[in-house]
Amino acid sequence: MTTPTLSPSTLPPRSPPTNTTILISGAGIGGLFTALEAWRHGFTVRILERATHSSAQGDSVTIGPSALNSLRNWPWMQARNLEITESPMLFYCNHKGERLNGPIDMDGLVSSGRVYMHARPRLHAMLLEQLEACGVGVEYGKKVVSYFEDVERGKGGVMTAEGERIEGDVVVAADGVHTKSWELVMGEEVEAKSSGHGIWRAAFDVDVAMRDEAVRERWQLLEGGRAVVELWVGPDVYCTFLRSKDRFTWTLTHPDTGTAVESWSHKVDIEEALAYTATIPDFPDYANRLIKLTPPDKLIDWKLMWRDPNSQWTSPGGRVIQLGDAAHSFLPSSGNGGTQAIEDAISLATCLSLAHTNNQPYPSALRIHNLLRFERVSCLQAFGVLNRDARNTKNNDPKDKKHEVKLGKWIVEHDPDSYARERWEEAVKCVGEGREKAWKNWNVPRGMVYVPWTIEGLMEARERGERTVLDGDWS
Ligand SMILES: Cc1cc2nc3c(=O)[nH]c(=O)nc-3n(C[C@H](O)[C@H](O)[C@H](O)COP(=O)(O)OP(=O)(O)OC[C@H]3O[C@@H](n4cnc5c(N)ncnc54)[C@H](O)[C@@H]3O)c2cc1C
């Protein structure tokens, strides 16, 4: 499919102006998607970003159909998305690189729709390009250091590092795991705990990797030029290799000895990764050769931190809301960080639009969005902890299916826009009457009764053989 030229004729129809400004901090995946959806619903959008200029960063990110089915509303992005997806065939391997299972077509991995594997820089660039075509620019070099709200005037706002005070009718904190919005929203920060692991991650030009004959021979494209992704599992080993037409991406999870940092700009030397692979019995030479080919500035050591779920995303006066990683961080093993940030964006924009058309105050729209989203996201956070647990044990057995990618119907068949519309009236009543505790969500595993959990409590309960949030019908 050829992507149509990005022009005014490919923009979606826009709702009439609402005369309401949505101020967004953070031009990542969640912030940009919020800006797009809010624009489509007739809101005026301002978006502030800490980085001084637009830059393409990151390696791979997986986005599910519950997020990207929404591109049906965005004709240009719908076509562009198909053009940029890597669409690889999946192999499960042991730590020696022997292929045990596969090729599995990732396009057929879920009951409905498709899971898209993207180079994050391309996905990010697509969202930015679309936003620019809508006439919305990102304001770079604006680092948000605090949030406030003025309930009487019906405003929320931020202070930047330069001392600038910027207001909006609604403020969205989409500024990632280190957001400062917690001071206003919860009063205290959710503690980030080390999971005990870090992950080396790198992405670079495939031509660099293909210079080595052994690497070239091992990772060839499949018939029709299909990309290949491999998951290697073994005792204390969990790594991935993705070879596409133009990129090579590899990741390797390792016990954290204090070298990793929860930052996407924490670059390290490949010698650290090679020292670790030297301890893995039978780790093949061609995989070490690939690691050695990684350009000097391309290897990141990301610290895998976890945070207990926090149900409060909305400020006391209802003018500021946290979104994406700022509200709920994920371990990569959940495969859901990007997907849930986009689902949040769609749900929030729909709730704001419904509030506007039904003459409901925006603070209740924020509280309804929070009510509709929290339990679902929290289940997926738990899912990431479980998957991670299944991947990083001394007894990792590649033949055991526990590490295989599992995305149940409740995950992929959800539509955050329809869900918000279907449940709106009921939710207005529930929030208006302060009956949130009695609310039952449908976007969670079937039959699940949500019981608040902590990571430590969850692990201990599983060890004792007790039922946990993970014991519902997750199919
Ligand atoms: C540079 C970068 C590279 C990444 N690479 C990967 C990857 O390869 N694979 C993967 O799975 N995930 C990656 N992620 C994380 C992934 O994008 C998110 O986990 C997920 O998409 C949820 O998106 P988000 O919008 O909540 O957060 P993010 O995508 O992290 O976006 C947060 C945005 O807020 C900006 N920001 C942070 N602090 C402030 C502040 N104080 N004021 C204003 N702006 C601020 C950041 O610069 C960033 O643009 C990366 C994130 C970043 C920022």
Q: Could you describe the 3D structure shown?
A:
The protein has 475 residues and is an alpha/beta fold. The protein has two domains: 8-85 and 114-190 and 310-419, FAD/NAD(P)-binding domain, CATH 3.50.50.60; 192-306, D-Amino Acid Oxidase, Chain A, domain 2, CATH 3.30.9.30. The chain contains 14 helices and 17 strands. The chain has a seven-stranded mixed β-sheet. Strands 7-2-1-11-17 form a five-stranded parallel β-sheet. Strands 8-9-10 form a three-stranded antiparallel β-sheet, with no helix packed on it. Helix 1 (29-40) runs parallel beside helix 10 (337-357) and helix 3 runs antiparallel to helix 4. The chain is globular.
